[in-house]
Specification:
The chain has helices spanning 3-34, 37-57, 61-72, 90-111, 113-123, 125-128, 134-153, 158-180, 186-211, 225-259, 264-280, 282-300, 304-330, 333-339, 350-366, 368-374, 381-404, 406-431, 439-453, 464-486, 490-495. By secondary structure, it is an all-alpha fold. α16 packs across α18 (406-431) and α19 runs antiparallel to α20. The chain starts with a helix and ends in an 11-residue tail after the last helix.
Length: 506
């Protein structure tokens, strides 16, 4: 990848890990100590519901932004024209589509109050108390998503990541602390939690306005009838597809809250395990955001070879980072629950983390396939993919949660990811001859197991904190040394050239 893109990706990852540190302290020491599992489940379920509704309200723009921005971007081959506005009026079109989607989504949610309240009130009555709070949270999420995605198209990742991973968590931490020390009640805390999304939306919009003009000036004649028809077809397809994919991705949490006997309390336990798993995907958030515009640009010119190069590079480094983080957490899983306040309430989430972690590794390796399909002429495949994911997710959770509880939801997620991503990759391999697999990826898995096994050589330390640090360090150092000796990370070694011992250099 280009140096600028690489620097943005690395900086974004570093910023994200700073946010993870804040999130770790918040989740495992503030929430676990001062909130009940039911209240934790609520603070997780509210943004998930908002994400589902915003996915509907976005009307497929989550994907169409990446696909169509190369056709609007001001460049040497497509120069800026005053009558068209910045990037040929792109901001106007995304604003109009977003406004239409927001109105439709709000009306739909209000009309659906009866059946949704009946669903909430049985196992998750606390969620019913905040039914209308979902609407402003959804609108904030939609606006923020539009600003953020537009920023990514301009190859800027670091600041948006700082807003999402650091600013949001600091604002939420402030709300939690005010509640913990008795300055506000629980209801006020929840509204403060929702307000934090509004502040981040505004911050994201201000930053976008600094790097490009947000003028609504546009020229309707710039958009050809052919482009308009293509956009309508693409948007219609992905309105359904994006909602389906998002719903399938979080069906486990919804089903736990609505099916499992523990309701929101079980969702709270699941949330703790899910938070640990979310740490695994942190590098993906930065890498994929930079890679997506590159894939879209290559697809625009029909450069399948370049598409595959980016796909392989992204898949390898996402699997590498995912395996490393997964191993470092798993060898310390008992230590983590041991240092948590009220950790005994959440330790049943141990195996939930394990199966969710495996599911996340599958996603990390193959998630770029969705971007490849979305930017290709085979984008209609995603409707079939979405149907497969929804059916698989629904059936597996329905059967597994009643018998296995929260662990059943995690296993269902693993099965869904294996089947759905496997099917999508099969179609890519057959139709486009594109896949992410390479010799070095096959070597990576046994190397990760060797690093994981090194943990077994360590005796238990007297202090849980020292034990946690030593096990994480051993796993990380062993894997790094193995990678350097095998020389299967030339991109990483190139960035470190001159800083490594001579024996590790080519």
């Amino acid at each position: 990848m280009a140096s600028v893109a690489a620097k943005e990706s690395i900086t974004g990852t570093i910023v994200t890990y700073i946010g993870v540190g804040i999130g770790f302290l918040t989740t495992f020491f503030i929430l676990a100590k001062f909130l009940t599992p039911e209240e934790i489940g609520l603070t997780r379920l509210l943004p998930e519901l908002a994400t589902q509704l915003s996915g509907l309200g976005m009307l497929g723009m989550t994907y169409s932004l990446s696909r169509y921005f190369p056709f609007f971007r001001d460049s040497e081959t497509n120069p800026y024209r005053a009558e068209d506005g910045p990037n040929h009026g792109f901001f106007y079109y995304v604003t109009v589509v977003g406004a239409i989607g927001a109105v439709l989504m709000t009306l739909l949610y209000i009309l659906a109050k009866g059946p949704l309240m009946a669903l909430y009130s049985d196992r998750s009555p606390l969620l019913a108390d905040f039914y209308y709070a979902v609407i402003p949270l959804t609108l904030f999420t939609m606006g923020w998503t539009i600003f953020e995605l537009y920023t990514y198209q301009l190859m800027r990742v670091a600041v948006p990541k700082g807003i999402k991973e650091v600013l949001l968590r600091i604002l939420q931490l402030a709300a939690y602390l005010l509640y913990a020390f008795g300055y506000i009640d629980f209801t006020t805390m929840v509204w403060g939690f929702i307000g934090s999304f509004g502040v981040c939306m505004l911050a994201s919009g201000v930053y976008l306005g600094q790097i490009t003009s947000l003028s609504l000036r546009h020229n309707p004649s710039y958009v050809s009838p052919e482009m308009r028809r293509g956009f309508y077809r693409y948007t219609a397809l992905y309105t359904l597809s994006s909602v389906g994919i998002t719903l399938a991705g979080r069906m486990d949490l919804f089903m736990v809250a609505f099916i499992d006997r523990g309701g929101l309390s079980s969702a709270g336990v699941y949330t703790m395990a899910f938070y640990m798993v979310s740490i695994i995907e942190i590098p993906m958030r930065a890498i994929l955001n930079v890679a997506a515009p590159k894939i879209a640009e290559a697809a625009k010119h029909g450069d399948t070879k370049r598409v595959e190069e980016v796909y392989r590079l992204v898949a390898f480094y996402q699997l590498l980072s995912g395996l490393l983080i997964f191993a470092m957490i798993w060898v310390n899983i008992d230590n983590i629950f041991g240092i948590m306040p009220n950790g005994e309430q959440f330790e049943q989430g141990k195996w939930v983390f394990f199966y969710l972690g495996l599911a996340k590794l599958v996603e990390l390796t193959l998630t770029c396939s969705h971007t490849v399909v979305s930017t290709s002429r085979y984008y209609h495949w995603n409707i079939y993919y979405t149907c497969c994911v929804l059916v698989m997710s629904f059936i597996s959770t329905i059967f597994l949660i009643p018998t296995l509880g929260t662990m059943g939801a995690a296993i269902a997620m693993l099965l869904t990811n294996v089947v759905s991503y496997g099917l999508q990759q099969l179609l890519l391999s057959v139709k486009m001859r594109v896949h992410p697999f390479s010799r070095r990826m096959l070597l990576l898995i046994p190397l990760a197991f060797l690093a994981w096994g090194a943990d077994r050589l360590l005796p238990s330390a007297s202090s849980v904190w020292i034990d946690l640090f030593l096990r994480s360090a051993v796993v990380g150092v062993v894997l790094l040394v193995l990678l350097l000796f095998m020389r299967i990370t030339p991109e990483l070694m190139g960035m470190l050239e001159g800083k490594l011992p001579a024996r590790f250099r080519k």
